[in-house]
Design goal:
The protein has 219 residues and is mostly helical. The chain is 51% helix and 0% strand. It starts with 31 loop residues before the first helix and ends with a helix.
């Protein structure tokens, strides 16, 4: 049936008979998921290095995304399904669900990168109500979206990223906005970042601004 399943658990105060262990190898010599994973999170022995998994980095991980992995995240704002998309079992057997609970929320189905960069905390609470995306919190969505904008370096994102760097109360958001601005680059961005070094107080954000300017100067 493929691997598109949500896994859950029920805690009971009852003794239950266990199922027999699943020991059938249905992957054979296939390595499509290993070869397709952008960050190399799936290892040759079929174990997962969660520290490199895009789903972990964009959902569960709350810190600063490692520099060497940001570019590899590509345009994934929340989670990643590449390994499932390339799996032959899913291509052959998975079927589109008719369960209404899995229908995308209207805002999420239509939101652009610019709209996500401009997402307020109030809008996050309202538009994401009932969605799993609330797990990463407002600052997580903005952090992830900033990385995505940096991977799609377009000057139209400069005002929104600059606004995040100036106004957002979360250092994790400001630091990733600085990184994204550095990837877009240009004299205008460099001048803006230079001015921010005289105002910003958080050491991590200042470090990101400095690295962003270095990147611009070496491009």
């Amino acid at each position: 049936m493929g691997s598109y399943f949500f896994l859950g658990e029920i805690l009971l105060g009852l003794e239950l008979e266990f199922d027999a262990p699943f020991d059938s190898d249905r992957c054979g010599s296939c390595k499509r998921c290993i070869e397709a994973c952008p960050t190399g999170a799936i290892l040759p022995n079929r174990t997962l290095d969660a520290r490199r998994c895009i789903s972990y980095l964009t959902i569960e991980f709350k810190g600063s995304i490692p520099f060497e992995l940001r570019r590899l995240i590509g345009d994934w704002v929340f989670g990643c399904d590449i390994c499932q998309q390339v799996c032959p079992w899913n291509n052959r057997f998975a079927q589109i669900t008719h369960e209404s609970a899995f229908t995308p929320l209207p805002f999420l189905a239509q939101a652009s990168l610019s709209e996500l960069l401009d997402l307020t905390q109030e809008s996050f609470r309202n538009d994401f109500r009932g969605s799993a995306l609330k797990r990463t919190k407002w600052r997580g969505i903005l952090r992830n979206t900033a990385v995505t904008a940096g991977n799609d370096p377009d000057s139209r994102y400069i005002p929104l990223l600059s606004k995040l760097l100036v106004e957002n109360p979360e250092p994790i958001v400001r630091s990733h906005a600085a990184w994204a601005l550095g990837r877009i680059g240009g004299d205008e961005v460099d001048h803006f970042l230079k001015k921010r070094t005289q105002i910003e107080e958080d050491p991590r954000v200042l470090e990101e601004i400095s690295l962003a300017r270095e990147f611009i100067h070496h491009e």
